[in-house]
């Protein structure tokens, strides 16, 4: 028998990859089951608010948001938060005009600064694979199709227009794919005005310190009128830890990173066993 919650949950927040989504041989084939969709819909109908918090950009996260009764969607680990997902489409979320949309929260950094950081890293580590994510376009020095088959990218010299092809404006994050031999050196190069998180042990993400899942959770609570202690956060990876700690209850899926399992208030079955759905089903009986 599962222990009853020690809080009065009003908001459920779930990561996608490794948590809600089933695994697949390639990134693009990861999927959500009808069981999970139905469980979340039941929870929503029962009065729970629901939000997604993912590292995915709009291009690969939007379709899951459209399958679920989301009251908000956190993309890019917190660099973009959509509070009107039922009305959003790809164009509205990735247009430069999104900077002025009251239903969107954008937390990034000037693209000129992003270019400076990429050039600095490459000066110290020639051949390092890195790129800038901005309005769902990846400006990179490598072919991103080795990681993602469908995401738009453009080769760049890491210069802002007109001397390069990176637009002036607000960038979302810098992504870096170092090999293990480069990790120690790369750590010494991260500027003080960026934080770094590592996704699935492969992709380093350099972001505005305020662009994080835990900060996004506080924004969700403020905008949706929910106290942090009345939230439940589900996750599997290191980048979920602080969000889970910020929530009233942090629930790890059984397949989670051992460090996530260590800090979790509760463990539910694995993502491939629809653990989040099982957790919801148990509490809606």
TrEMBL record:
GO terms for cellular component: cytosol. One of its GO terms (molecular function) is sugar-phosphatase activity. Keywords: Hydrolase. Its EC number is 3.1.3.23. Pfam families: Hydrolase_3 (PF08282). InterPro entries: HAD-like_sf (IPR036412), HAD_sf (IPR023214). Signal peptide: none annotated. This is Putative hydrolases of the HAD superfamily.
């Amino acid at each position: 028998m599962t222990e009853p919650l020690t809080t009065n949950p009003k908001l459920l927040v779930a990561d996608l990859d490794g948590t809600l989504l089933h695994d697949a041989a390639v990134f693009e084939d990861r999927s959500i089951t009808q069981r999970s969709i139905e469980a979340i819909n039941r929870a929503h109908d029962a009065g729970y608010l629901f939000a997604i918090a993912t590292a995915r950009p709009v291009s690969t996260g939007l379709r899951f948001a459209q399958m679920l009764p989301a009251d908000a969607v956190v993309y890019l680990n917190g660099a973009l938060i959509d509070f009107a997902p039922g009305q959003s489409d790809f164009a509205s979320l990735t247009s430069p005009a999104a900077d002025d949309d009251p239903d969107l929260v954008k937390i990034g950094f000037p693209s000129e600064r992003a270019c400076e950081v990429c050039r600095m890293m490459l000066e110290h580590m020639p051949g390092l694979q890195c790129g800038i994510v901005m309005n769902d376009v990846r400006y990179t020095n490598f072919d991103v199709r080795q990681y993602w088959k469908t995401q738009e990218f453009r080769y760049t010299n890491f210069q802002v227009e007109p001397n390069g092809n990176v637009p002036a404006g607000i960038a979302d994050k810098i992504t870096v794919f170092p090999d293990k031999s480069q990790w120690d050196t790369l750590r010494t190069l991260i500027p003080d005005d960026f934080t770094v998180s590592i996704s699935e042990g492969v992709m380093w993400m350099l972001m505005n310190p305020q662009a994080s899942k835990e900060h996004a959770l506080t924004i969700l609570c403020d905008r949706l009128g929910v106290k942090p202690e009345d939230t439940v956060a589900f996750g599997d990876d290191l980048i979920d830890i602080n969000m889970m700690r910020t929530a009233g209850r942090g629930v790890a899926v059984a397949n989670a990173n051992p460090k996530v399992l260590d800090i979790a208030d509760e463990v539910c079955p694995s993502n491939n066993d629809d653990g989040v759905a099982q957790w919801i089903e148990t509490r809606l009986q």
